[in-house]
Amino acid sequence: MTNVTNSQSSQATDYVRIFDTTLRDGEQAPGNSMNMAEKLRLAHQLARLNVDVIEAGFPISSPGDFESVELIATEVRGPAICGLARTADADIDAAWNAIRKAERARIHTFIATSPIHMRDKLRMTPDEVVEAAARAVERARGYTEDVEFSAEDATRSEWDFLVRVYQAAINAGATTLNVPDTVGYTVPEEYGRLFAYLREHLVGAENVIFSAHCHNDLGLAVANSIAAIQNGARQVECTINGIGERAGNAALEEIAMALHLRYDHYGIRTNVDTRQIYPSSRMLSQITGNPVQPNKAIVGANAFAHESGIHQDGVLKNVQTYEIMDPADVGVPANRLVLGKHSGRHAFRRRLEELGYVLDTDALNKAFQRFKQLADQKKEIYDEDLEAIVADEIVRIPTRYQILSVNVSSGTEMLPSATVAMEIEGKRVIAGARGDGPVDAALNAIKELTGTTAIMREYVVAAISGGTDAQGEVTVRIEDDGHMVTGKGSDTDIVVASARAYVHALNRLAYRRDDVPTISRVTGP
Ligand code: KIV
Ligand code: ZN
After folding, report:
1. Are 282 and 349 within one domain?
2. Residue span of the structural domain in which 381 resides
3. What does the pLDDT read at residue 13?
4. Is residue 9 over pLDDT 50?
5. Which residue in 423, 422, 342 sits closest to 380, CA to CA?
6. Where are the beta strands (DSSP E) in 325-367?
7. Spatial CB neighbours of 412, under 8 Å, sequence gap ≥ 6
8. Residues with CB under 6 A from ligand 1
9. Which ligand is nearest to the CA of 249?
10. In a mutational test of the pocket of ligand 1, which residue from 19, 27, 110 has the highest number of ligand atoms less than 8 Å from its CB?
């Protein structure tokens, strides 16, 4: 049995725990799937961010999920590691088996409590739901002292029934009571009142932590979470970049910075190291291949950009005229130009480490080689370039398919064509194809070589850093047999970047989410 320390025992009223569910609620949303090593890498970053709890996955849901939760529980130190479980015995047992090696292990069990979920999904009576909740908490308490109970769809449940279920959970030993707004239906005043009501009506409420878990269907997830905090919640469940089911979950960076910046108003603090916010956001975006929308609060590319003349004038005179926070406080590098042609291996490694990438010697050598090649093509190397190098060459070492060369001819007077050479399972193969443009031709050649039937769902090109010598970063999203994966590739040549992105996605598809990738070479601190 593990002991509850730190987050649970601290009853300080001015402190709210950050429960990060990027790897569970975030990861389960389409287009956000990560393989095991990517999850581990992000979990190490979450530890650097200093979240209180990492919900690492839903162990019973697949062998891959089990293994990644187990790996994170074994390797990541600092935050409590949590595994999700329904109320069935097998779920609780799997959650425990996956997290048992954690420094602090939490089981999070849940069952739906709204009339529609109980009747139409669970086909259980309210009495059966109460009993299942109590039994699950009791079983989980047999394993660990740190047990969280959630009443799924709480915000569409009857309040007096919620009191019954939560009371049963408290009596069975739950230490955290989570109140999920599963479908993003509630509004701040109502959600706040629900917390006040529960705290008033539950016997023993003062001995448990109340937790908010908000989805963003109405764009109110952060506002609702803060309303909950104002009414006594001392844990918030959230995700980096707000990723999650449908419109997402409450964004960690927005909650953390609202509380940090407006401490004068709320008087509530978190343990988050705010300077790790931006690196965490970048890392997640790199891993999933999903760009952050430019106007996203705190971490979007425009969050600290000043375009209008009046604003620029004000900022030049006094930055605080239009900036409420210092970009450095959230880890946005003040000077994004980091390295150049003459930078050495030491500076290169140090900068990668600052960005959260700790590589072993072999991986570092490969990355450094690629950096030197890029530095020959491009005068200035930015953080984004370094991230692309790591993502392309190190984290995503091609496994089944590897590009050897891409040559295209195109122009106003000719039909675009491409010749692509690849190594596929150890064999060198080559094909030529035509297309509507050079990118289309190159991808057609890759299709021919790999025989893929995947359908291209999205193709996005962006310039990493400025200038005509900028690296192009291509993100593709492809779908095959019900599996959607993203791939990323970068190069100063957009056709090559596209081919890399496509092959990266095909490799991910080949290995799907549960396979052990080759990136165990990227380790935590
Ligand atoms: O949204 C939700 O209800 C959940 C629960 C499993 C906590 O994610
Ligand atoms: Zn959720």
Report:
1. no
2. 333-393
3. 77
4. no
5. 342
6. 337-340, 358-359
7. none
8. 25, 110, 150, 152, 178, 180, 182, 213, 215
9. 2
10. 110
